[in-house]
Amino acid sequence: MTEHTRVDYGADDVDAKMRATPGPTRIHDGQSVAASKIVCSACPVLCNISEGRTGACDRYANVAGALIRVDPVVMLRKHDGSETAKAATLVPFVREGEAWQGDILADERLFVTGIGASSTYPDYKPAPFIVASQVDGIDMVTVVTEAIFSYCSYRVKIDTDRFLGPEQASVRYRGEVVGHVTTAEYGSQMLSLGGVHHLTGGSKKEGRATCDVMLALGNRDAVEVTIDGGATLALTAGRAPIVDGVLEQRMRVGCGSATIGIFAPQWLGHVDEVIVVDDHITGVLSEHQAGRYIGIGRSGIRVRGRKSTPGRYFQVANPGTGWGGTDVSDPLEIIESIDARIAWPGLRLLMVSTTGEHHAYFELDSGLRPVPKEMPEAVARVVARIGENCEPSLTSVLFVGGAGGSLRAGATDNPILLTRAIKRALVNVTAGGAPTYVWPGGGITFMVDVTRMPLHAFGSVPTPALVAPLEFTLRMADFAALGGHMQYVKSLDEVLRHGSYHVDGAPQGLVLANASAANPWPLSALAMLG
Ligand code: SF4
Predict the structure, then answer these.
(1) How far is the CA of 298 from the centre of ligand 1 (A)?
(2) SS3 state of residue 154
(3) Domain boundaries, position 363
(4) Which parts of 460-523 fold into alpha helices (H)?
(5) What is the per-residue pLDDT across 61-92, written as a single tens digit (0 to 9) for each?
(6) From CA 186, how far away is CA 277, in angstroms rounded?
(7) Which residues line ligand 1 (CB under 6 A)?
(8) Of 159, 256, 341, 484, most Cβ neighbours within 10 A?
């Protein structure tokens, strides 16, 4: 490491909030430092922290000569199905000679998360909490850690048709490149943000900007990013995206062709032609299979672009923020020709976008020119139904973390056995109690929806890297079989009273929060297995 931070950070109320922890003080992990300082070894930055101050990440502090974790560990209380959410409760762990204030917790069904759990990086110590519990008479164990991820990124799904920028274009935060536009999905534009390349492979400024934008996105704070050759986006996980200052409302019902397929029967008898304008696949009712199926005759209207299959056209316009994600503001621009041998005066033409937000109704005059007319009510009803079938536009943020490295040593002496157990579905991997998807293939690469995690579940360290909670829950017998650190297993009751097994950098208490009713209870998933 060449980037050690030796600076103290202010946390004016550290002394007032936190009590001193008995144990080693001036010498930490064998490193002597100035009498009033402590070395934090929870990450490779190795801050020297003066008394009453916090380290560079604001997570650890020197209180009366002891290194403590500033924020409490978050424990989840199983949702009891009631409508009334219980307030989060803060309970300090018991120190010698003190009475425990947490008796009320004993009957609760609780899960220890990695949020605030503390850890070391690389993981040369066992995980701070290895918690035994019983589920339906089965002995379970949860290995809880707060992982530090140099290898991590986000997949950000933005529900919009609008053109945000060319595929592979750089995404910038505070002017630094922090990711790129990746493959668009059905009704959504996708970004890939963060990752080890931007965290470590560029300038220090790029690494910091990457870490900051990732921290904010994971914690569901608003961020503003710009795309080279594209839009400025205001993004918050779980909220509607704002594209160039415009709040996105609707996710399209489908591509132009799909929209034709869905609504064709509802247009029958009310219009002679419908063109659904879409940046990818523009649909033309009279040529489309759906139009033929319901007996719509040819209209003689031909749109621009490359014909893919009957009634489905690619590249009718350039991408943009106009109709259907094209740069079109006047839909008639995409009409290439009207065949006088087929079309007729009075032909009724609807042009509509894939969200129904843009729509116009025309009738051909005696010269076969489209003339705007008031839309008949029956046609307007179908246009409204397109809108009704659009889902609310959202920004979805999936965190992708690589947990196949040293943190496995916090669980077992033989890390490959943990990896294999996960691949054999013997381990429930959760992040802050939220379910994860573990990718197939090597390593432990997992994804989690940040909106299913408790709020503000992420932290960071200035290496730079992201800090995120991770829990492995498995049967005690399987844990023993994979060489788990059995000597560090503590009962839930013991954890509730005294916290983690270690003293240095330990959280001083727990905060009890309600588990999300949308998530499966993390302890139940494996206990159900035969
Ligand atoms: S974990 Fe935080 S306080 Fe400890 S060394 Fe790293 S940055 Fe400093």
Answers:
(1) 71
(2) strand
(3) 256-388
(4) 476-481, 492-498
(5) 999 999 999 999 999 988 776 655 566 677 88
(6) 15
(7) 40, 42-43, 45-47, 55-57, 59-60, 461-462
(8) 256
